[in-house]
């Protein structure tokens, strides 16, 4: 991102400043920032205002669950010029099987709290992609035809499931745990879909039975292949999706 983009940080106060670059998604520039004397996290990207407004409304809804919330600009706006500033969340990453079971419980609770949530503007769910070819970062037209057929066969097994907001990337880097709270950071990939996409966890911590775990694992691999295509990770994930 250009330096000009980060000049928007001045709208959070004259003393607002970047501190250190953080590992973020491929679509964003993510830094720890200091705003009004407090450590926070700034994310600069190219999402539309409608897309960011959806994410902010979601996080405000989940505030009582210990999730990060937006820090407003001096004049009260919750994002400005593609920049979103979020509260800094303390905690460590999950390590043990018991830790991951807490993560699974938290994800299921967040899923229950967001049933019936409207779709993120411009996004498509996995089952929408049985018929649509594009949605935000996904372009099935860029993938091999045979790979698309395999992904769609995996997603077809999800038809008829109840939907909710999924975090979209619950890997250890995006989880912060304390003794009394599990928080998920970086909701940039969140959208409305079937909860299965969040529940393929280490140690099968979400407690899926054999068939349910297979459906979820295949659908998740297909999603990650499509959303990241065609980097090395996406190619690896597509190889894990069974042939039709």
Structure commentary:
This protein is α+β, with helices and mostly antiparallel strands and 244 residues long. The chain has two domains: 3-87, Phosphorylase Kinase, domain 1 (2-Layer Sandwich), CATH 3.30.200.20; 97-239, Aminoglycoside 3'-phosphotransferase, Chain: A, domain 2. 30% of the residues lie in helices and 18% in strands. The chain has six helices and ten strands, in the order H-E-E-E-H-E-H-E-E-H-E-E-E-E-H-H. A four-stranded antiparallel beta sheet has the order 1-2-3-4, with no helix packed on it. A hairpin with a 2-residue loop joins strand 5 and strand 6. Helix 4 (145-156) packs antiparallel against helix 5 (210-228) and helix 5 runs antiparallel to helix 6 (232-239). The chain is globular. The chain starts with a helix and ends in a 5-residue tail after the last helix.
């Amino acid at each position: 991102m250009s330096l000009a983009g980060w000049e928007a940080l001045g709208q959070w106060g004259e003393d607002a400043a970047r501190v250190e670059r953080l590992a973020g998604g491929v679509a964003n520039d993510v830094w720890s920032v200091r705003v009004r004397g407090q450590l926070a996290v700034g994310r600069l990207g190219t999402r539309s205002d409608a897309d960011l407004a959806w994410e902010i409304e979601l996080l405000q809804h989940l505030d009582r669950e210990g999730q990060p919330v937006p820090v407003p600009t001096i004049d009260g706006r919750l994002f400005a010029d593609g920049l979103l500033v979020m509260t800094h969340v303390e905690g460590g990453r999950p390590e043990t099987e018991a830790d991951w079971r807490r993560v699974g419980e938290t994800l299921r609770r967040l899923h229950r709290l967001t049933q019936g949530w409207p779709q993120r503007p411009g996004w498509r769910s996995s089952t929408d992609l049985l018929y649509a070819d594009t949605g935000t970062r996904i372009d099935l037209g860029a993938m091999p035809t045979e790979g698309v057929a395999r992904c769609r066969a995996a997603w077809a097994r999800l038809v008829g499931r109840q939907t909710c907001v999924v975090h979209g990337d619950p890997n250890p880097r995006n989880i912060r745990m304390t003794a009394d709270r599990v928080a998920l950071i970086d909701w940039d990939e969140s959208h409305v879909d079937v909860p299965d996409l969040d529940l393929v966890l280490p140690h099968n911590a979400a407690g899926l039975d054999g068939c349910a775990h297979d459906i979820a694992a295949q659908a998740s691999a297909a999603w990650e292949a499509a959303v990241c295509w065609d980097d090395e990770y996406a190619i690896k994930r597509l190889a894990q999706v069974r042939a039709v």
